[in-house]
Amino acid sequence: RFYEKVQALHQDPKASVDNPLLAFSLIKRLHSDWPNIVYSDEAAENTQALHAGFKEVEQELPGTEDLDGAAQALMRLQDVYALSVKGMANGVFQRAGASRPPLYSPGRRVSLSADDCFHVGKVAYDTGDYYHSIAWLEEAVSLFRLSYGSWNPEDRSSLEDALDHLAFSYFMAGNISHALSLSKEFLHYDPSNRRVARNVAKYEKLLEMGTAVSAGPLQRPNGTRLQSRDAYEELCQRPRGQVGLAGGCHGPPSHRCCPSHMLLGPLFSQPAAELHPHLGCSYETNGNPYLLLQPAKKEMVWIQPYVVLYHDFISDAEAETIKGLAGPWLQRSVVASGEKQQKAEYRISKSAWLKDTADPVVRALEQRIAAITGLDLRPPYAEYLQVVNYGLGGHYEPHFDHATSRKSPLYRMKSGNRIATVMIYLSAVEAGGSTAFIYANFSVPVVKNAALFWWNLRRNGDGDGDTLHAGCPVLAGDKWVANKWIHEHGQEFRRPCSADPQD
């Protein structure tokens, strides 16, 4: 039965792991469902062969960190895109309480099982996050009730487990009466459980004494890093095609650099757009002979901060080469923390660094970046090319690319702060993954093969606070980008300071 279920999933061409629910269920199946099958009593007839086969591949299978990370990714998507948990469990990516069309419609709808929902809720429960544990465990309880009496050997949890965890979640959230009713339901299925019987007595006593805290609306946990959470999430939720340009492409259609389907859509009404004549498209040579025969297709996205999108900056073949070079070296991305670098939940991705000597494609790309920016990329004036892969729920919460402290590891290069960023989109995504500029209040969706450029520092060397930006979580797909960070030193005559010390 289990084999037939798995076989059906793998034979369906529409069942793409771009779908985060399918990606989560695949990780869970490889980490826990198969071992449960292999070591179950039902496998007695061919136990030896199953065990031997499983041992051969065990080291290559996802671990606990992978599965828990996938569960956290689903909760992240739930939060940032305001998705309904019930909808997600049914395979629908619909905003909670909204009648608008789904944010993403997979080719094949994949629903989560009661055990899947229990695992997501349990990950939240184990960290004391009862806001999320209640939503997911409610769905688990609901699904377990529907299938009560039938048992799947791959499942690790049951209706009793879900009721137990959900009751305690409600207790911790202050809803004693609901915790009591769930505990009583638990005892209906397992009357001999003394611990839950003691909990029932405790809850009844609290309610009799009137000391129970009245349950208010559950609050989402919020780290101090996300003071701008509402603005960040609103930018991530904007539909593709409703963010970006004010002015559109200039000139007749035959002379436009970026086709109309690539435009990011109007941010302003038409009268307001006329006040921003500099936002538009143009062919740019930047005074560089390298660009004379093939000018850059420049789309001016924003004035302050200065943000530009260069369309068709890299070819499909070049993008695939860079992904292939980086693939074997990908490691969990780190962030600067004081004088050290470490992993962090607010940056979930894998990255690798490529020298320009790694391949002629990397060298050609560096030449192209130098041509469009007019900056000096020779070592140590720029960092190696960083290739980043954002998978299931991959994201990077609001941050600056430039260092905000002199103790930052960035200064070890002894070439000053990061003056500019070039970010190249190496892949397309089906939904999510936009680059959101928080204070400037705009976001740029993923445009395959395009390069996004912005200045991190003002001309006087101060950090530009308007460049606070974020990589929105990938809702569906596999996002690859290549970052080139350019430093101050070596650019003194290429981007000189102005006569105005405030500039």
TrEMBL record:
Its EC number is 1.14.11.2. PROSITE patterns: FE2OG_OXY. It is found in: Endoplasmic reticulum lumen. Keywords: Dioxygenase, Endoplasmic reticulum, Glycoprotein, Iron, Metal-binding, Oxidoreductase, Signal, TPR repeat, Vitamin C. It comes from the Eukaryota. It catalyses: L-prolyl-[collagen] + 2-oxoglutarate + O2 = trans-4-hydroxy-L-prolyl-[collagen] + succinate + CO2. The keyword Iron applies. GO terms for molecular function: iron ion binding; L-ascorbic acid binding; procollagen-proline 4-dioxygenase activity. One of its GO terms (cellular component) is endoplasmic reticulum lumen. Residues 381-488 form the Fe2OG dioxygenase domain. Its main location: endoplasmic reticulum. Heterotetramer of two alpha-3 chains and two beta chains (the beta chain is the multi-functional PDI). Belongs to the P4HA family. This is Prolyl 4-hydroxylase subunit alpha-3. The lineage of its organism: Eukaryota, Metazoa, Chordata, Craniata, Vertebrata.
